[in-house]
Specification:
- The structure is a single chain.
- This protein is an alpha+beta fold.
- The chain contains 21 helices and 22 strands.
- The strands form four sheets. Strands 14, 15, 16, 18, 19, 20, 21 and 22 form an eight-stranded antiparallel sheet that branches. The chain has a seven-stranded antiparallel sheet with strand order 2-6-7-8-13-10-11, with no helix packed on it. Strands 1-4-5-9-12 form a five-stranded mixed sheet.
- A hairpin with a 5-residue loop joins β19 and β20.
- α6 packs parallel to α9, α6 packs parallel to α20 and α9 runs antiparallel to α10.
- The chain is globular, with a radius of gyration of 24 Å.
- The chain binds zinc ion (ZN).
- Zinc ion binds next to α18 and α20.
Length: 649
């Protein structure tokens, strides 16, 4: 194993830049599909896979009209509506400064949620979201907000005489009690991690010097504050949810080379989770899901910093077991925020409180990180599936607000937060989700360009003097067209993802068939010297399929390519606005008048075969048990109506 310093020295700065914050995209055969043995990537002498990928800077990617760009615009508008001074209220109070504006509601201030101590998490997510939005769009208003918030936090640090900035009702006393091992309520490190991460993203993606200065002072406070803890006391503290504190200290190490930060990244790595996963033991039943996923993202980052293979083994094993054996068809996971025994799938699948959206956000961060290390189409398949059915599906296309749970209680509906009175965890990750779609459409390898997602967009590969433009109406039409603009004829391998859901993929170059793949879940390599105007068409096949639930043969979801099809039951009896809610704890009791959804009967494969297009794009019908047609639409297009994604047949 290389030393820490030696390993870091080999790291190009660009790799750090591209790793920060964004944590998105890469999808594999997710859903509730049975696990399958994964091919081992070839390893170099250093023990790392030979083939690695790097993301493109979002500033070099454009996004054209479509649902992703619409979602981005909705979030951009929300970010600009929010008032930094209101998010800063409790930070200033705790530093002994007068607040400049009233505090926001929900988790930020209301008595119902006082004990969870998430106060201030929103400011951290907000910084990350503004940094992602700035990197995506170049809109200076986002950078101005980042710089303003950072300058305010610097004023808090100065007034308090401490690097710690926090918004907890009891202020720094809560953190001190946690460090002493006292019994506390809430999740102080989870919340602080959001602030650290927001400042990191401000520093890295928006090049905010003020953010970097506040971050380093906060980071140094953390080093000093945790120094007295014995290893046992530290591990005991990690029994409480702590977000991705290991990830952020590994990032800080990459930013600075400071060995104290790397040591702390390792101390913040929860051994009770790391050790079994590194041995390939799935001990996840009953654990709080979103507490674990960010730790695993951190394991992969600590591996990148140390070369310690155990961290990587744990991350890859966790992904495999969660993405391939513990997820719903949508890529969501967990019931009531917890992993459950998959043998009991039938008891959990129809919960109104399954699939917390934060878990999908964090699983995509993990998937992306693993893809960079080992660029396999399987990761990209999962990324695509979860992006459509978990992330894009989480946003109200009309208000821009987002879901907490995306449960599959038949006939229930998506519930969205309010602009100023909810501020759930998923509100925070939701701010980030929709302003980073540019991040994971394309990746680069050694003289290779990966096309992972079929999204209307373009990418400029500056070092190659190359622009690749993608025109597509996917998923309405399972075809995409890529066109090169090049300064000079350039030898490159274009790696087109042949998704796991398409039996066959056919590629035309300048109108002639150049490749035909019958290996779903792989890349089609087109190695040639490209010239301006060269045009590549990828033709895929989208088919309706029945996806069986694990350990519950009578429970089925229907898919069309990567899309989960949902029964669309309309919104009869639902008053307008009743799906905009404040309190996430009441999921399952809002709008809970008894409702009997249409039933399906018969063999799942025969049912899938009976699904017919209804005439509109991506809309279908399936005959119910009584013979009446039931409307099916992509789950991501469900906005305000009652729906079903799983059926007991
Ligand atoms: Zn959440």
């Amino acid at each position: 194993m290389p030393t820490h310093q030696a390993h870091a020295a080999g790291y190009p700065r660009r790799r750090f830049l591209t790793n920060v914050g964004t944590g998105a995209l890469v999808a594999g055969l997710g859903g509730a599909m049975p696990g399958k043995a994964l091919a081992q990537a070839p390893l170099s002498e250093s023990g790392r896979p030979v083939s690695r990928a790097q993301p493109f800077d979002m500033a070099d990617v454009t996004l054209d009209d479509g649902p992703f760009l619409h979602a981005q615009h909705m979030t951009e508008a929300y970010l600009l509506e929010l008032q930094p001074d209101r998010m800063l209220h409790n930070f200033r109070t705790n530093a002994g400064l007068d607040p400049k504006a009233p505090v926001y509601g929900g988790w930020e201030s209301e008595a119902t949620w006082e004990d969870i101590n998430c106060h201030g998490h929103t400011l951290g997510h907000y910084l990350s979201a503004c940094a992602l939005a700035y990197r995506s769009t170049g809109d200076e208003r986002f950078k101005q907000r980042i710089d303003y918030i950072a300058s305010e936090l610097a004023a808090c640090q100065k007034a308090a005489g401490s690097g710690l900035v926090c918004a907890f009702p009891k202020g720094p006393a809560l953190v001190a009690a946690h460090l002493r091992g006292d019994k506390i309520t809430g999740v102080p490190w989870y919340t602080l991690h959001k602030v650290y991460a927001g400042l990191r993203d401000g520093a890295q993606l928006a090049e905010s010097e003020a953010s970097r200065a506040v971050l380093l002072r906060l980071a140094d406070w953390g080093v000093v504050a945790t120094r007295p803890l014995s290893d046992a006391a530290f591990e005991a503290m990690l029994a409480t949810e702590h977000g991705g504190m290991n990830e952020i200290y590994a990032d800080l190490y990459f930013m600075t080379g400071n060995a104290d930060y790397l040591a702390l990244a390792q101390r913040f790595s929860h051994k009770a989770i790391l050790d079994p996963l590194a041995r390939g033991v799935d001990h996840l039943d009953g654990l709080h899901a979103n507490t674990q996923v960010p730790k695993i993202v951190g394991f992969q980052r600590v591996f990148e910093a140390t070369g310690d293979a155990r961290y990587q083994q744990a991350a890859a094993f966790f992904w495999r077991t969660v993405a391939l054996t513990r997820s719903f068809a949508t890529g969501g996971l967990g019931d009531n925020e917890h992993f459950f025994p998959m043998a009991n799938f039938a008891e959990h699948v129809f919960s109104a409180k399954a699939s917390e959206t934060c878990c999908q956000h964090n699983m995509l961060k993990l998937t992306r990180a693993l893809f960079l290390e080992d660029p396999r189409a399987e990761y990209a398949d999962y990324y695509e599936r979860t992006l459509y059915n978990g992330i894009l599906a989480s946003q109200d296309p009309d208000s821009g607000m987002v879901t907490y749970f995306q449960g599959a209680r038949p006939g229930y509906m998506k519930l969205y937060h309010t602009p100023e009175d909810s501020f759930w965890c998923c509100t925070g990750t939701g701010m980030e989700n929709h302003v980073k779609y540019r991040d994971s459409i394309y990746f680069q390898g050694d003289d290779a360009l990966y096309v992972n997602l079929f999204v209307p967009s373009s990418v400029a590969w500056k070092e190659k003097g190359a622009v690749l433009t993608q025109a597509t109406r996917f998923p309405e039409i399972p075809t995409t067209t890529l066109r090169w603009t090049l300064q000079h004829p350039t030898a490159l391998t274009l790696k087109l993802r042949h998704p796991g859901w398409s039996r066959v993929a056919r590629v035309l170059v300048n109108g002639s068939e150049a490749a035909r793949s019958t290996s779903p879940g792989t890349y089609i390599d087109l190695a040639r010297t490209w010239r301006t105007g060269d045009e590549v068409e990828l033709h895929l096949i989208m088919e309706v399929a029945a996806e069986h639930a694990p350990a519950a043969p009578g429970i089925v979801a229907f898919t069309y390519g990567p899309l989960v099809l949902a029964g669309d039951f309309g919104r009869e009896g639902l008053a307008p606005g009743t799906d905009i809610v404040v309190n996430e704890r009441k999921y399952g009791s809002y709008n809970d008048a008894p409702y009997t959804p249409p039933a399906l009967a018969g063999d799942p494969e025969a049912l899938a075969a009976s699904i017919r297009p209804s005439g509109e794009a991506l809309a279908f019908t399936i005959p119910s048990a009584t013979g009446e047609p039931v409307s099916l639409i992509p789950y991501h297009r469900v906005g305000h109506q009652r729906y079903a994604t799983y059926w007991e047949v």
